[in-house]
Amino acid sequence: MACWKCRGNKGKKVIAAICLGWLVMMIFPVSAMITFGSEIFYAILGSILTIIVISILIILKYFGRNSGEGLREREAFVTVGIGWIILAFLGSLPYVFSGTLGYVDGFFETMSGFATCGSTVLKIPEGCTDYLIGPNCYTHSIMFWRALTQWLGGMGIIVLSVVVLARVMGAGSAKLFKAETAGHMVTRLKPRLRETASILWKIYLLFTVVQIILLAIAGMGVYDAVCHSFTSIATGGFSTHASNVEHYNSPIIEAIMIVFMLIGGTSFILHYRILTGKPKGVFKDPEFRFYMFTVITGTLLVTLSLIMSNYNVLDAIRYGTFNTVSINTASGFSSINFGSWPVPAKIVLVILMFVGGCVGSTAGGIKIIRTLILLKAGKREIKKIVRPRAVMPVLLGGKPLPEGVVINVASFFFLYLLTFVVATVLLSFTGLNAVTSSTAVATTMGTVGPGFGGVGPAHTFAFISPIGKIILSVCMWIGRLEIFACLILFLPSTYKS
Amino acid sequence: MKITLRMRSISDAIGLILLLFSLTFILPIIVGLVYSENIFSIIASYLFPMVITANIGLILWLAGNVGGIREKR
């Protein structure tokens, strides 16, 4: 408080001007209370009070401290971790204020959007035949907002902030970029990370526009094309229809979406190389090759399983390819209810939920490169039994990996599995069966979307208890930020010198 | 326990991100207007969240910067 008193007249004027502006902006919520009466009175009043209380607490606590501080690594991780929760809370306000969803459901839906998960709690409103068809159906704007959250979350809202606000943020922006993208594994395209982030967003925008045009030409309609492009390049999975992509029953639309889901699941660094006329190295990239290997192998296994259970061969190829690519890239679209598929196909899909896409892509999961490193490290350990004194570094693309990277990947894998087990146990206490709770956690941590059992593609997450939805929201948060940025918040050493 | 995190830096960064994020609410407002949705519904659903987000962003940014502004002067 001492600093408050010694601020001087200029400082007081600045504060006074800001308070005045803040009060003017509050005219909108107050006028809403008068207009809408008691229906949203408490929601808006609660929000205003929360803002006032939080702002006063922050101002009293931190006003006038020494300046000149920058973001260090730990602050960057804390900023990203906390920032995502605040963003999900604020992003849920349109659902709450429009009366579409309650607070917990709205938070779940928004976190699912930002994490590009695609798990939904939306149900077809009573008297409607689809989300947007019927007398009391959802509005186009709310479904657009839902798609937009996925698009923003795909490349990362904080990465976008780095692009736009790098000059204001200063050196800290690079650390934020690393924290949100698990940057120690993302190659720099340019010496400055801001330029790298800018290129990534431009490529992202380019693919989105191209897909909108292609889907519109394929007969989707401009609104649907925009929403589905937002959610498929982001490997999200939200659709404007309750029956998802099955609604269109169009092989051409499915083919276009397969291509863009694969693009979304590939590292954007590789896209940059292709777009700048250097495609040679792409097919030599070990992660991309292994990614293609998992997609093709997974598709073949699922298709074979469908053919063996008396599916028509063409249908098996069509549905097998779309849904396998959708799960492998952590998109979560469905062109058929794959929850009713034979067990081998479902097992393959569950495995792919964990694997995910490439590092530097919009896909979730453990990521291809980590899976590849783990496989190679496992192979090395087996070799070491035969030749215990041999020095055998793990090779990736012919280059030896530092041992620290291998340990980092092994630690990540362990923490991922530990989180999966803990979350599954916690979720099962809410009354869900083993298949539903385990696949719900796997699908939210892998940011896929649908699971199996009660959360299959023909169902929603709406029936899960509020506590269950919070657990799953945390899983999405952890899965999207790749564990470390989240778990660092729970380490006491983060807050100590 | 003495907290040694640079809270002002965190507050500054989150504030800026929120200020940027508040602008994204403009897009669903445009979609709502294109589809002739109820104007009050649009205001309640997107304009208020936008104002709230911008407010929180502004306050957080200020909390991280006003000390610095004073010292520059």
SSE inventory with pairings:
The complex is a heterodimer of chains A (497) and B (73).
Chain A: H1 2-5, H2 9-25, H3 27-36, H4 38-62, H5 73-91, H6 93-97, H7 103-114, H8 140-155, H9 157-169, H10 172-181, H11 193-217, H12 222-233, H13 251-265, H14 268-275, H15 286-308, H16 313-328, H17 343-355, H18 368-386, E1 395-396, E2 399-400, H19 403-428, H20 434-445, H21 466-480, H22 484-487
Antiparallel strand pairs in A: 1-2
Helix pairs in contact in A: 3-4, 5-7, 5-10, 7-8, 7-21, 8-12, 9-10, 9-11, 11-12, 11-13, 11-14, 13-16, 15-16, 15-17, 18-19, 19-20, 19-21, 20-21
Chain B: H1 7-23, H2 26-34, H3 39-72
Helix pairs in contact in B: 1-3, 2-3
How would you describe this structure to a colleague?
- Chain A contains 22 helices and two strands.
- Chain A has helices spanning 2-5, 9-25, 27-36, 38-62, 73-91, 93-97, 103-114, 140-155, 157-169, 172-181, 193-217, 222-233, 251-265, 268-275, 286-308, 313-328, 343-355, 368-386, 403-428, 434-445, 466-480, 484-487, and strands spanning 395-396, 399-400.
- In chain A, strands 1-2 form a two-stranded antiparallel ribbon.
- In chain A, helix 7 crosses helix 8 (140-155) and helix 9 (157-169) runs antiparallel to helix 11 (193-217).
- Chain A is globular.
- Chain B has 73 residues and is mainly alpha-helical.
- Chain B is 82% helix and 0% strand.
- Chain B is built from three helices and no strands.
- The longest helix of chain B is centred in the last third of the chain and has 34 residues, at 39-72.
- The model of chain B has no long low-confidence stretch (mean pLDDT 81).
The residue fraction in helices of chain B comes out at over 70%
- Cα gyration radius of chain B (Å): 17 Å
Q: Which chains have the largest interface?
A: A-B, 75 and 59 residues
Helical amount of chain A: 55-70%
Structural class of chain A: mainly alpha
Low-confidence stretches of chain A: 1-8, 64-68
